[in-house]
Design goal:
By secondary structure, the protein is an alpha/beta fold. It is built from 26 helices and 10 strands. Helix 20 crosses helix 21.
């Protein structure tokens, strides 16, 4: 019998701590943040929103939940969390193409599942749709197509037989494709019975500054669609087609853009990457659709300076109180134990508050901590019916020593050593209250250099100013709970 079974769980409740790994049971463990209903209704009413929070605070889980619930309100929702191929700089047209590409692929899969969507489109609408498919539908393998088909929103139908037919039998593209073939735009257009698009006329509509003869003579008219203005018009037309076909509205949800591997962890590269998208208020403020963008809170000040209009696009800040975090923990334990267990049944008395304090108000880091504690208990005694005090204490020490500071704190220099060097300076001082003289003595530096070191850790939020001593020396208190814990345990250095 494994430890989780002795604790009366059906599985280890602490083996996952990211929304990507928990999508299958997200509804069962989700706790709504404050003002969630207002956020959801704003999005449905075509008001774009920024979702802002620290790493591990639950932005991705919230975006997944929003997507699921607005789809239930007949919103056509597209989640974009893969930015491969988008350049770091000067990328507005690339973001627009990404939006159109992802939307048209999902919309085609949805039409394949629900052909009746085309009935509401007139001849002109179908020509536009045919044109957009021809220009923006990227070839898909059978496997890729099936993934989009499975993501496609189930359109509500009053006719049960037609609904069953559409969902089970009507996979025209899937039935005609061989496993090694790719699905091309022309095949998609023909399978939907769409006309050949009036390409020249539509190019002229989107690019009125071009002469018609210029378009006709071009060997590659698609090159004209490199213009951001034209791409915006096409995107608006596509959202109108989607809405006209039966959906209430369209929503694009951007998630994990700050985790794009090409950016590293640097604030400067993240803000450069998203600048063109976030500063385009004509794109973000529309009556035809909404855009939701998850943002790391460490980037907000930099975006403010770049001119992002947080006064026009309302930020939704995710914050968890200790009480809410306790609810999140209890909800997870309840789910994995089929309501048989509560937190106090398996943890030592007065432990829960200490666990929450060390998590720094982050659900992810609460469960990462508990994962280490669980493994520690497993190593000590896997036959125990509870988590012992010894396992909690040693597990917390191991968790803090291995804490991924580089993943939580922004790096201006783009290297993980930057934050760790500053953490280790504080640990070497070994006090919860720090003065300039401490840096001078421990780091063997001049007073001006010591003052600069303090400014750095203040900017990171590791310490905060609390006042002056009688002798006029400025005093700072360690703020980060992981560093405080390590100091209390006498740890002088961590290595990664």
């Amino acid at each position: 019998m494994e430890l989780f079974e002795r604790l009366k769980f059906k599985k280890n409740p602490f083996s996952t701590f990211s929304a990507e790994q928990e999508r299958k049971f997200l509804d069962e463990i989700f706790i709504y943040p404050n003002n969630y209903n207002s956020l959801r209704s704003d999005i449905i009413e075509n008001r774009s929103r920024f979702i802002i929070g620290a790493r591990g605070i639950g932005k991705t889980a919230l975006i997944y939940k929003i997507k699921r619930e607005i789809e239930e309100n007949n919103v056509f929702a597209i989640l974009i969390d893969d930015f491969e191929g988008v350049p770091v700089k000067n990328n507005k047209k690339h973001f627009l193409k990404l939006i159109i590409n992802e939307t048209i692929k999902l919309y085609c899969a949805t039409i394949s599942k629900n052909p009746n969507l085309l009935r509401n489109l007139d001849k002109n609408d179908k020509e536009k749709l045919s044109f957009i498919i021809a220009e923006f539908f990227k070839s898909l393998s059978l496997r890729e197509y099936e993934q989009y088909y499975d993501k496609a929103t189930k359109f509500k139908s009053k006719n049960l037989f037609k609904n069953i037919y559409n969902n089970i039998f009507n996979k025209p593209i899937n039935l005609l494709l061989g496993g090694g073939l790719e699905l091309a735009s022309d095949f998609v257009r023909k399978s939907f019975g769409l006309p050949d698009s009036n390409t020249t006329g539509l190019y002229k509509n989107y690019l009125p500054e071009l002469e018609l003869e210029t378009i006709r003579k071009s060997e590659n008219p698609s090159e004209f669609l490199e213009d951001a203005k034209a791409l915006k018009l096409i995107w608006i037309d596509l959202t109108q087609l989607i809405n006209k076909s039966g959906f209430k509205t369209t929503t694009i949800l951007f998630d994990r853009a700050d985790e794009y591997t090409a950016l590293g962890q640097g604030i400067e590269s993240i803000t450069t990457f998203l600048k063109d998208l976030l500063t385009d208020t004509t794109l973000l403020l529309s009556e035809n659709y909404s855009i939701v963008i998850g943002l790391w809170d460490a980037t907000k000040n930099d975006f403010d300076q770049l001119g992002v209009r947080f006064d026009k696009i309302k930020p939704f800040n995710i914050n968890w109180s200790p009480k809410k975090l306790n609810e999140i923990l209890e909800k997870r334990i309840e789910h994995f134990s089929d309501r048989k267990v509560k937190a106090n049944d398996i943890f030592p008395e007065q432990t829960i508050n200490k666990l929450i304090d060390l998590s720094d108000n982050s659900p992810r880091y609460l469960f990462r901590q508990l994962s280490v504690i669980y493994d520690t208990q497993n190593n000590f005694d896997s036959t125990s019916n509870s988590i012992t005090k010894k396992a909690v204490e040693e597990g917390q020490v191991n968790y803090c020593k291995d804490f991924e500071f580089y993943a939580v704190f922004p790096s201006k220099k783009g290297s993980k050593e930057d934050i760790l060097v500053n953490v280790n300076r504080i640990l070497k001082i070994g006090s919860l209250e720090i003065k300039t003289k401490d840096y001078v003595d421990i780091a063997k530096v001049s007073t001006p250099t010591a003052i600069n070191y303090i400014k750095i850790v203040q900017n990171y939020g590791l310490v905060h100013y609390i006042g002056e001593t009688e002798n006029g020396a400025k005093t700072y208190q360690v703020q980060n709970p992981v560093i405080k814990f390590l100091i209390e345990k006498g740890v002088k250095e961590i290595n990664r």
